[in-house]
Write a structure and sequence with these properties.
Bound molecules: 2-amino-4-trifluoromethylsulfanyl-butyric acid, cobalt (II) ion
Number of strands: 15
Number of domains: 1
Largest sheet: 4 strands, antiparallel
Oligomer: single chain
Order of helices and strands: HHHHEEEEEHHEEEEEEEEEE
CATH architecture: Alpha-Beta Complex
CATH superfamily: Creatinase/methionine aminopeptidase superfamily
Structural class: alpha+beta
CATH topology: Creatine Amidinohydrolase
Helix content: 25-40%
Shape: globular
Length: about 280
């Protein structure tokens, strides 16, 4: 735990004893249990919920304004204006040198597409808009796909089935299940539809930092990986490819990830809280 986390944890209500006991049982069975710093306490959850509300407001605003002919820089402007206007900060801006406030990934771009005045949305494009928000220091992260004008049947299907991949992952994200159960559910659904799943990138813990443990792979084996404990907050954000799973990184900007075969890719993302009974989507 870093200093910021230690201080935060000290100020919080303790983790309920029945949860600590169940974690200990899991540990004795040889399961990987989360560090206590990954179990968010009620006051922290409240902060992340407020951040998530702004995040959802950003995506709703993009949804209302996105259109054929618009540049991806205009999306960046909308995201930045709404976020700053609500007293929040765009997490991507200057994150490890990232130059913009949002990621806009079109067609064969898997993720981390960089907004530009020179890149316009065209009729038939599919685009992922990935918004990450900091409010009062709390992080939230979500993305949606948008279909521009008349898209092909194949693209529409990829977008809709990728959303179902996220939903399959959400259904598996239950207390005392494991991270592997999520990846298993996502990849099982994706493969049943003839798609492949990107392996190099995945979901992540989120809230105190932009990217926390665990890494949430979208491929996995049931009953493996870190056990999911009430109070954990992380993203599920499957990147699903129409062709093969392989990806390449842009050698010029060192950010944008593309499918290796040039075929389309789609992604949907939510930030969720593991509860005592299931999960709560914070970025609805
Ligand atoms: N939102 C992306 C994620 O889910 C992160 C983008 S990092 C950026 O992790 F710097 F490229 F924005
Ligand atoms: Co994310």
């Amino acid at each position: 735990m870093d200093e910021k986390t230690v201080k935060l944890m000290d100020e919080q209500e303790p983790i309920p004893s029945h949860i600590l006991e169940r974690m200990e049982e899991c540990r004795k069975k040889g399961m990987e249990v989360p560090d206590p710093s990954l179990i968010k306490r009620p006051a922290m959850i409240q902060g992340i919920i407020e951040s998530s509300k702004i995040n959802t407001g950003v995506l709703d605003t993009v949804a209302a304004q996105i259109h054929d002919g618009m540049s991806t820089q205009e999306i960046d402007d909308i995201v930045s204006e709404y976020t700053l206007g609500h007293g929040a900060v765009c997490a991507p801006l200057h994150f490890e040198g990232y130059p913009k406030s949002v990621c806009t990934s079109i067609n064969e771009e898997v993720c981390h597409g960089i907004p530009s005045r020179h890149r316009k949305l065209h009729d038939g494009d599919i685009v992922n808009v990935d918004v990450s928000t900091i409010y009062n220091g709390w992080y939230s992260d979500a993305s949606r796909m948008f279909m521009i004008g008349q898209v092909s049947e194949a693209r529409r299907k990829l977008v809709e089935e990728t959303k179902k991949c996220l939903e399959a992952g959400l259904a598996a994200a239950k207390p005392w299940a494991t991270v592997g159960d999520i990846g298993y559910a996502v990849s099982k659904y994706a493969h049943s539809r003839g798609y492949s799943v990107v392996r190099e990138l995945g979901g992540h813990g989120v809230g105190i930092e932009f990217h926390e443990d665990p890494f949430v792979s979208h491929v996995g084996k049931q009953h493996t990986g870190m056990v999911l404990v009430p109070g954990m907050i992380f993203t599920i954000e499957p990147m699903i490819n129409a062709g093969k799973a392989g990806v390449v990184i842009d050698p010029y900007n060192n950010w944008t990830i593309y499918t290796n075969d040039g075929k389309d890719s789609a992604q949907w993302e939510h930030t969720i809280l593991i509860t005592e009974t299931g999960n709560e989507i914070l970025t609805y």
